[in-house]
Amino acid sequence: MSAAISEGVGKVRRPELSHKIDIEVSVNDAILLASDEGVLTALDDRTLRIWLRRQSGKYWPSVCYTLESAPSALYYHEASRRLFCGCDSGLLHEFSVAEDYNKITLVCTYLGHQTRIHAVYFSPINDLLLSVCREKKFNWYSTKSSDENHQYILGSYTLASWGMSITMDELSRQCFVGDSNGTIYFLKLDADNKYQSHTTLKGHTGSVQNLLWDPDAAWLFSGSFDTSVVVWDVGANQGLAVELNGHSDRLVGISYDKSCKILLTCSADGHIGVWPMNVKRNETPKWVESDSCQICHLPFFWNIHAMWVQKQIGLRQHHCRKCGHAVCDKCSQTRTALPLLGYETVQRVCNDCVRTLRNDETIPLASFYDARQGTIKMDYNQVKKIMMTIGTDRTIKIWDMSSVV
After folding, report:
1. pTM for this one?
2. Domain containing 336: what range?
3. 169: helix, strand or coil
4. Which residues of 178-191 are buried (b: 16+ CB within 10 A; e: fewer)?
5. What is the distance in angstroms between the CA of the first residue and the CA of the last residue of the chain?
């Protein structure tokens, strides 16, 4: 059973561990099956496996398919039973999965990458396969078997650093790509599968490990190695972004339950976050730079002239998380959570903001639970309310989240 770290408002229940799958080799990626009680895994021993729950209640592999190199990224479209797999070698494979999950058949191998593939995405509406890899390339392919030479790339875009994550708005054909420098690229593909324009978003200081698109709200969720999640309100066309801070380790998984309007997050230290998204949060303020404290006006340590005039030793600069003003330590002694600004852990608040701070601004909104497992990835099934976490200990845990969401 997981341990609750912070219960939040009205949250007295916690995820329940329902099943464990112990695997003898490292797991690179895994996907929960929606229509059956099973898990697809990409393992470091160069195998793809499908694990089904048997009558005994334990999970056993029904398929073991060996590849030419270790599979590193998976995408499964359950309605069409099409499984896409990226490998360490740079190859992309498409498989057809049998209805009883007892066989997978190789359909096509896509060429174009030379190094480890970090993420793949399949768009059934547009018949496109998207991929990013360690060679700083974002590639897209046609998945129509009727297209001549469809196993070769339709187009490619060079990134500034490793591509780490990818998602797509299928109706507008807008692609979102996260890289290892913390940049998110927007590239729109036209009807001829050529990119028309691109722009970038910069809100992370670490690798963008996870991207998730909600077409209904037009929200883009990004999870990063900098421990934060940013919710980009792309539909508002105003560049609005809400930052969510509550984890103390890098983000390895994010999922959004549309029916409950709840964001689920998981960090590398095994902490699961449950964030209600039907609450209006405010953007975190930009930090103001100043040569002196904006409250007591004493100089900071680099302000040599003011230090000489005032005969004052320079102070260290800090920032209030509520207003963003530059302040000294004496003028920012208070520490409190600011959930409406996305801060679920205690933060520095200046003396001016403390005077106007309301009690309802400090009430926790999110809940956090300890899975007691170092984690490399998570997945979530919205219909069944179950979550899967992949552990560094080569164990897959399946959680019943119905009491939480």
Report:
1. 0.88
2. 304-361
3. strand
4. bbbbbbbbbbebee
5. 17
